[in-house]
Amino acid sequence: MSRDPLRVIQTSVTQSPVIKTDQPPSEPAKQKGRFRPALLLHEDHDLCPGCGEPIAIRLMLEVIEELGQAQNSIGVIGIGCYTAFTSSMDVDLVQALHGRAPSVATGAKRMRPDSLIFTLQGDGDMVNEGLQEVIHTAARGESVTCILLNNGVFGETGGHMTATTVLGQRTKNSIEGRDADYHGYPILIGDLLAQLGGTVYAARGSVHDAAGVVKTKNMLRRAFESQLEGGGFSFVEILTMCPTGWFVPTAEGPGYLDNVLGAVHATGELKNHERLVTTAQLLAETRPSGP
Amino acid sequence: MTRRLMEGSEAMVEAAIAAGCRFFAGYPMTPFTEVLEHFAAKLPEVGGVCINAESELEAVGMAWGALATGARAATGSTGQGLALMQESFSEMTRAELPLVVFHMARGQGDYFQATRGGGHGDYRHIVLAPENVHEGVALTQLAFELADRWRNPVQIYGDYLLAHTAEAVVIPTSDQPERPPKDWAVDGSLGGSGRSRNLNPLGMEKGTKGIEPEPFWKRLQAKHDEIAKTETRCDTESTDDADVVVVAFGSMARFARHAVRELRKDGARVGLVRPITLWPFPTDALAEACEGVKRVAVLEQNGGQMIDDVRLSILGRAPVDPIGGISSDAAGFGIGPIFNPDNVRERIRGALEGREVAA
Ligand code: SF4
Fold it and tell me: Which of B10, B124, B172, B331 is geometrically suited to a Cys-Cys bond with B6, CB 3.0 to 4.6 A?
């Protein structure tokens, strides 16, 4: 057995600027802090500092608003840290069981074909607990959009291995790092879904930096647009920071996301109607020299 | 209105569609399969949808989504398939979704599953047990009414005999009285208004942080207490002067009724109590019907499940004895040799004579 799992992990990660909390924020920072998307009832939340999920949720709400779908959207929400946002997202919501959101979305869409129906799920929710749900929903070509917030751990339980945890990644139940011989390999869910006939759009974005945020927002827009065109299943996977579940300092979260998770779950469009690309191809394009 | 000869599965599906059911999802399993087949054939004709789900987990999830939009929707299976759905059943009860479940069980061994459930937390389902196809039709329509009235799941507990016996029945036409609008259902329209909905099993409210489980669970408890008070249904026959009262439900009660009538012709003082709602169990009606009897004989096709509820109703005022037992066909589909008029009559005669009746 190969017992050198950590070699896969690049340990030097880029630092993000630390926000000083021992003095009042600057005026631009205050303005930024007061900003909230129209579809968010209030800006309070209990998620950790440096968490990537609120960024992804903001993008999703902005796109719904920009597409004029605020009064036509139904979200089906999984169980994870992001579930806390069900009390503040100003969109009609249905809370699903862990893993079961794609089926609930299917039932809702079949009864309301003109509504914009999306799921919001984490990697534990979608790729562990409910993998067959999302695969069959895609295969049936349901015109719903499944959004995956992928941070490679069960953040809410405190940082445990999921089906997307990359080799070498330390979690509370793979304490020496994920070892292929012992724990098996991560699932590249985007590839699984992209190759199914019912899928019209599949993409993987990341919110580790500003460029990634912009690209991710465009992916969400394209996914929702393909749903509104009625073509079939659409999927956006968003890599998000989870410094708490990774046991890294908050400021190192974005760098860790890009260097560790992003080096396996490469970002880019996997399917846009007829155009099909694999993660391996994306990796070769975006990181020719390897991780 | 014309009578048509239909097997139970078809008749109940027709009744469901007449009651406005427009969505069904299921996974085939004997003896429930024909319910799925009939929904698959008939729902598209009325603009509805029937999905052959990838498993029972997804079937109930799909019904959840359809119900959330305010549609009348159902799922179903046998006890085995329902075992897989239990997590959703308990959470859908907390999300207050009016699910109707067609349970075509492999016999009566799923009484505990139906009335206690295998899900988590405090929750209750209304359980209706039709004796024959004619009543299957009526109780199917009642199931949709009760589910909406209480915003609570309702299960129809049938079996192989109910699903596959053909009877001449009339399906009431679909001109239902106007149903009150479901203002709790999600349609997306309140997005951005500050009053958007969150249909959830956690007691979570929009605009507030966190959850307060205790008051939420207590409110549901109060609702279930109210259902228990108001929705019991029970059928009694010849109990006024009875020495022995037989208690039986569903198909078993059909055989018991036949035997009780035959024994009455011979002058035996025997009566029948048939719970129609297995939950809420008709405790008071049963206790009243059994006042002054020498013996209460429980005829059920299982190792002794409903007998617990009978004993809790009789509270020691008369001996309560089992006269049924486990009885199965070779395939385990729930049509055992106990379903035989002579067999049932002899068991009841044994109870009348004070003999112990072997299972
Ligand atoms: S545990 Fe991870 S996913 Fe959860 S709130 Fe904290 S950083 Fe975000």
Answer: B10
